[in-house]
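User: Please fill in residues for this 302-position structure.
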């Protein structure tokens, strides 16, 4: 069977219908007409000789074939976006302002509480650079170009990545003074079980490692469970209970008190990484340099 290569517009409409669940929703998201999106889906199904959606009054329901093709279409989308970002920074003269779009990915807490002032300084120096900030606790794939630059809490393994260790970030138990005034201050990990604890909801590799360090503290001791680091931090600041957050971040607030540091401390190596092909891109190089310097200042308490 010979399959005629569909153009990118068909895959873009395919991904949008997958996300929106209807032609009308996809059309609004893409800025196209509903008939155009419908023609794209029909053309893609004909080209691939597959049924991608079941049409119903409730909308377009993705078939197993559509779900199987989804990651490949998403890879095409990432590559297309990366190509446009790279092209935006190519061909700029040395005497011209650096311009271009750079996609950065970082965890929730780093994106919300650490990066904004660094990006503000970057924009003052390079107003022609546009930042796309992908907020995610997942490790985005730089090889697939889901992002150009990543702030990671583990050393990148791929040889084709340019990686720089910017230091280590410590995690520890913290509580607001309001909570401690009401409930007292635990003196050791054993006394922690008598307090309102803020913790994780679902398991992953990091949380399994964390459980080993928690010793006698089981999930059943957590009065509030969430997989969002932002929820943990906001709950600690609100005086809801005792939770884990970045020591350097908590030090910014005099009302947050670190607890049992002798018994509990997690030190996470912090790395900045980007694909080596982007080193010659002026915008990516400028962002990489600025973030490295800013993160080192943050970690060292400057």
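Assistant: Residues filled in for all 302 positions:
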């Amino acid at each position: 069977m010979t399959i005629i290569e569909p153009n990118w517009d068909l895959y873009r409409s395919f991904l949008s219908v997958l996300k929106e669940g209807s032609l009308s929703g996809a059309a609004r998201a893409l800025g196209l007409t509903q008939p155009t999106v419908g023609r794209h889906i029909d053309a893609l199904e004909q080209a691939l000789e597959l049924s991608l959606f079941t049409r119903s009054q409730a909308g377009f329901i993705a078939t197993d074939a559509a779900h199987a093709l989804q990651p490949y279409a998403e890879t095409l989308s990432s590559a297309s976006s990366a190509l446009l970002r790279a092209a935006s920074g190519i061909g700029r003269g040395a005497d011209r302002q650096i311009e271009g779009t750079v996609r950065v990915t970082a965890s929730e807490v780093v994106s919300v509480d650490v990066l904004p002032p660094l990006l503000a300084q970057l924009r003052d120096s390079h107003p022609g650079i546009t930042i796309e900030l992908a907020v995610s606790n997942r490790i985005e794939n730089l090889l697939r170009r889901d992002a150009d630059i990543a702030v990671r809490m583990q050393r990148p393994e791929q040889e084709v990545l340019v990686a720089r260790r910017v230091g280590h970030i410590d995690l520890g138990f913290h509580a607001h003074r309001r909570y401690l005034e009401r409930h007292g201050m635990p003196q050791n990990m054993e006394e922690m079980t008598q307090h309102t604890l803020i913790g994780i909801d679902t398991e992953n590799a990091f949380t399994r490692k964390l459980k080993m360090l928690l010793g006698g503290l089981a999930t059943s001791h957590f009065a509030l469970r969430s997989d969002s680091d932002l929820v943990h931090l906001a709950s600690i600041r609100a005086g809801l209970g005792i939770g884990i957050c970045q020591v350097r971040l908590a030090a910014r607030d005099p009302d947050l008190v670190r607890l049992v540091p002798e018994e509990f401390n997690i030190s996470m190596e912090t790395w900045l990484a980007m694909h080596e092909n982007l080193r010659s891109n002026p915008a990516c190089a400028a962002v990489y340099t600025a973030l490295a310097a800013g993160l080192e200042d943050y970690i060292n308490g400057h």
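For context: Residues 79 and 175 are 44 Å apart (CA to CA).
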